[in-house]
Amino acid sequence: MSDLTKLTLAGARDALKAKEITSSELTGAFVKAMDEARVLNAFITETADQALDMAKASDARLVKGEGGPLEGLPLGIKDLFATKNVLTTAGSHILDGFKPPYESTVTANLWRDGAVMLGKLNNDEFAMGSSNETSYYGPVINPWRRKGSDAKLVPGGSSGGSSAAVAANLCLAATATDTGGSIRQPASYTGTVGIKPTYGRCSRWGIIAYASSLDQAGPITHDVRDAAIMLGSMAGYDEKDSTSVDRPVPNYEAVLGQSVKGLRVGIPKEYRVDGMPAEIDALWTRGMEWLKAAGAEIVDVSLPHTKYALPTYYIVAPAECSSNLARYDGVRYGLRVEGKDITDLYEQTRAAGFGPEVRRRIMIGTYVLSAGYYDAYYLKAQQVRTLIAQDFANAYAKCDVLLTPTAPSAAFGIGESSADPIAMYLNDVFTVTVNLAGLPAISVPAGLSGEGLPLGLQFIGKTFDEETLLRTAYALEQAAEFKAAPTSWWRT
Amino acid sequence: MSVDQDTVRRIARLARIAVRDDELPALAGELNSILGFVEQLGEVDTTGVEPMTSAVAVKMKMRDDVVTSGNHQKDVTANAPKSEDGFYVVPRVVE
Amino acid sequence: MTFSMQHREPRDEDLIKGATGDWEIILGLEVHAQISSNAKLFSGSSTAFGAEPNTQVSLVDAAMPGMLPVINRYCVEQAIKTGLGLRAQINLRSVFDRKNYFYPDLPQGYQISQFKHPIVGEGVVVIDLAGGRSVAVGIERLHMEQDAGKSVHDLAPGNSHVDLNRSGVALMEIVSKPDMRSSDEARAYVTKLRTILRYLGTCDGNMEEGSLRADVNVSVRRPGAPLGTRCEIKNVNSIRFIGQAIEYEARRQIEILEDGGSIRQETRLFDPKAGETRSMRSKEEAHDYRYFPDPDLLPLVVEQADVDRIAANLPELPDDKKARLMSEYGLSAYDATVLVGEAVTADYYEAMMKSGSGKRDAKLAVNWMTGDLFGALNREGHSIETSPVTPKQLGELVDLITDGTISGRIAKDVFDSMYKTGRDPLEIVEKDGLRQVTDTGAIEAAIDAILAANPEKAAQAKEKPALAGWFVGQVMKSTSGKANPQVVNKILNAKLGISSDD
Ligand SMILES: [Mg+2]
Ligand SMILES: [Zn+2]
């Protein structure tokens, strides 16, 4: 086979089962690709030796016709997932040298199913960002470039290492997490598929917390089938996570190709925000056409509280993070800057260990929870959250799934938008509502911008109805026939 | 509600993040622009609306009263910047 | 059901006489009681006391990144059981909040507690005081929360060493209303609360090991005047110290007020060596705990059916047991209170009474138990559970006294050898021939012999009856105490011609 790294997850799986290739060959090819792609800065930690050992063990099982659903398949892991005895940083200076004595439930599920770990992927510090520019380990560079330009573009965030690595064929698929859009927006920026499942579908145990009531793990993959396969392994009930939900994991791959005839696809009018580029609006319309052609019915719905989603998010998420990140105090792990007393140690350690965006959100969160402001901010936000969830419940009385753009723009240049926090926050305008309501959503590449950059469309599903989501996304994928790929300019 | 520099200092203290005085004006500006952005929630009528407690309605699972973990002194102190005889070590805390 | 302070008239005995007049002490207590359980509130670590540092610390207790709490069902049931024992309202829906602050023994940077919606609401504890007086102290609330770890300050100069073994252990914070008016009442309250918790088996009440600690809120005011500013004395860990701390703190506040000063609301620490309270500098900085519902946990919902099941299996509580002992055995309030102080004590007494014929002397039985038996147990460092004298045996001894087989004096010797040898009282009486002699013939013979041997003393005694006592002593001596004293007096008086005045 020519270039093994260009295989999809499903393709590689079938080739391994058919014994056309070995996991060692496959893994070796990715190790080489990673080595040639350092300029993208997608990985914080590469674990080539461990990968080749795991591949060898997989091959031993595969020759006996044994092995799990992901046997021998090399993956990249977002550095927010704790991996036993492997440096885990969350993209932050404050976790310097931290090697967890434990494995996150989601990654443990992947290894249980036979997957191979290539390394730990870069991300915005503690998943706080939409461009991967807040990582202590530096920005990740999007493998995509504008037509006729070699300007460095962002891969989206916070799972920028995951989206870039998949788009550049540095791994077959990657884990990611999504608190306000951190799986779907990077997928849209890199021509990849990203699914954020229903809150509670994947265990949060061992995933470094940003905002506990919003965080969910999911995959970034080459296509919808790969997303179905990855989610099937990542998902499942975990008694170690009180918010994880105890219900069986369906065979997601089985629903792909099922007809969408008669499916009611809702179009929320509030997502037609002013200032949205015409090409994105056009893409959205094309998406409706494709689905209609496939037999689906397009219905107009309203989500009246949409405009309040971002302000709500920017109260709830910082409030939770200000408390979740209190444990990074220089006492039990990570960075420590000595001080004249314990308080000074805390203040110096946290000032040096957290980057500007993380400090900003901790400060906001501390403020909105502080005496006298709780009701006006946090309580109010949680009430609006209830209204946002009700909007969706009302919409789903009229439709089965919602179609929206994933992001208001294509990938932008590094440094272009990070100056103004609010401008940066607006990247999540279409994705954040979903986290607030705990719903599942998926981003599928649907076309290219005028500048030749990928653009994604998002489907939003009902609670625990990932099957309809994947089925519909697959139908759109078939219609869109998105085949574009970046030129491998980074190869050295 | 507009945040002044004293408030920023107080918040930073609560959050245990050292800030230099010359950082205060910029920080106050940023916090104010974000707070200004979230102010718009004031428009929403939330009278009688229950605050969301959980994105998905499920009953909280409970654990049985059995000891399932212990004697991980090494594991829990291995990453500590400063530890001694199985203790974490910090500058003297006065009571 | 609220027993609020307004319902109490100041008692003169409780007032403190200051230089400028009387002062009334107002006391409210926050008691932290460790829930008896195998594992911690949100993790699978052991709660056993005194282990090597950080050996009972799970990844959750150490607040490792990505770790999550899962609540211990038994701890919830223990809290409900305690609520029922305090005759309190059980809230079927309660919420865990995060109390945010930085401290080395608080690894998460927050304590998981219940702030707005505790699992237990208002209840009442009836406390027993001197002279059979009892007072109802209102319970404001009971909530569950995590204990903190512990910092050791003397292992190395300039450093503190942190041990997280206690971190995450389940506590019940039991908050009283400001219903107590003297250190006696505060001590009686903690004593009674401890008794209730031990009856329920929800807390071992061991104050030495810190299973029970009290934060004491003290304020003073002119009798009937509005509440004064209070100071909170943190973590007082013995009932005696609670009394001392209150006495000192009340006088400190009165002095300040009488010198025209005012009280600053603050948290203070009781120093047992100095016997005084000191301001806690470390807690000076104004706190802003930023409570909010813990997003890692869902609201705690319990079914009424579960509450009913727990209520159905509740043991007899001290107040009920006391009332029953009084009515069943005709005991005084005082005796009954002493017996129910520990369930095992009441059990011993009831076993003793039930082992008998039914007409066993209940009052005499209490006296022997709380007098001679308790005395011996204390002396020998035994507990009622390890008493060498069984309830049945002590009961038999009581019967031997009532039916006149032995005298009270002889009974003490019999008890001593019972305690030493564990033999039955009757066996001892027979073997050592301690039966009381009531046969008049034998006693008369003994009297005649002594009168004959001391004619002149006998003559004097006929004149001065007071001297007859000497002869009684001689007779008892010659019968080695076995002669029935009444019979001796009767015959002796007759022979000396003294009119018996009985
Ligand atoms: Mg207290
Ligand atoms: Zn407490």
Describe what you observe in this structure.
The complex is a heterotrimer of chains A (492), B (95) and C (502). With 492 residues, chain A is of the alpha/beta class. Chain A has 15 helices and eleven strands. Chain A has an eleven-stranded mixed β-sheet with strand order 1-3-2-4-6-5-10-11-9-7-8, sandwiched between helices. In chain B, 32% of the residues lie in helices and 7% in strands. Chain C has 15 helices and 16 strands. In chain C, strands 1, 2, 6, 7, 10, 11, 12, 13 and 14 form a nine-stranded mixed β-sheet that branches. Chain C has a three-stranded antiparallel β-sheet with strand order 5-4-15, with no helix packed on it. At the A-B interface, helix 9, helix 10, helix 11, helix 12 and helix 13 of A face helix 1, helix 2, helix 3 and strand 2 of B. The complex binds magnesium ion and zinc ion. The site of magnesium ion has 2 residues of chain C, from loops.
Shape, per Cα inertia axes of chain C: elongated
Task: Give unreliable regions of chain C as ranges.
Answer: none
Strand content of chain A: 5-15%
Largest sheet of chain A: 11 strands, mixed
What integer value in Å does the Rg of chain C equal? 30 Å
Ranges of chain A with pLDDT <50 over ≥5 residues? none
Average pLDDT rating of chain A = 96
Measured between the Cα atoms of the first and last residue of chain A, the distance is: 22 Å
Structural class computed from helices and strand pairing of chain C: alpha+beta
Attached small molecules: magnesium ion, zinc ion
Work out the helix count of chain A. Answer: 15
Describe the largest sheet of chain C: 9 strands, mixed
Q: Would you tell me the overall average pLDDT of chain C? A: 92
